[in-house]
Predict the structure.
Amino acid sequence: MDVCAPDRIFLCLLRPDKSIHNIQTSRQQLKGVLDVGHALHAMSALALTSSARRTAARCSASARHLYTAAKSTPRCANPKRNYSETSGGSKQQTPSGERDRSAVGVFTPTAAAIFVATGVGLFFYFRHEKEKLHEQRQKELIDKDVGRPNVGGPFSLTTQDGKTFTDKDLLGRWSLIYFGFTNCPDICPEELDKMSAAVTELDKAYGPIVQPIFVSVDPARDTVPQVARYVSEFHPRLVGLTGEYAAVRAACKAYRVYFSTPRDAQPGDDYLVDHSIYFYLMDPHGRFVEAFGKASPMEDVVERVKKEVGVWEEQTGKRV
């Protein structure tokens, strides 16, 4: 009887296919076995053989599963790294040792924030500059369409040296003209200081092409000697003008200047004169260019005069 004896069980485990055949044979031959001990021995062998078959089946299934999984798993070309590399080859180590997913090359969140802030700043800057340019063009169009303000005209007054000075003496040079009075406590000296400082700066740039002029609106008290003493405290080229009430009034009217000096005022009277607080820029043709008020700083005056001199030079080829 070809049954796995106890001493052959190990061989049966190694050869499960042979054991299956032996099992079938054993079932047929077992019917004729009379010896109880031998039958028990055969049944024991059969049980062991069945267990071996199940074990072998499980081993075979496990082997097939491992082979299939290994075959389907892609192999990594490079080993796993605990850092991220930039385009320049530098390594950015992260605290967790994993790749920094928030960084793409050198474009980090901080760089992105700086980029956005810069873009917003440039946007508002260029928009502001565009609005300023638009306003400037609109102003130029208005000047061309409407024309120059009707400021300036004929006048005849007397200088601090006792000489006659008329509107014709303004021709051939740039002029800054201020209307005030010598007894003015604060505003007139401040404006004349500002005008004198602007002329000093322009003299450094162009030479003496801008003539500063002071016109008194208080003819009763501002005599020629009084005007001479007063203008000597400011720019050395400052021309002081005064005259009779009618002549002063005509000059103020031509230049659209308001003043409140009484017609019948006397030199010894104590009064203040209310008047317009502007000084005017006139071009070498004696035409009005700009008026500068108390709020205009000296730098703005210089800048505007330089601009007008530049335009004049482009159009005529000379500065005056």
The first helix runs from residue 9 to 14. The mean pLDDT is 77. The radius of gyration is 55 Å. Helices lie at 9-14, 16-29, 36-72, 109-146, 187-206, 224-231, 245-254, 298-316.
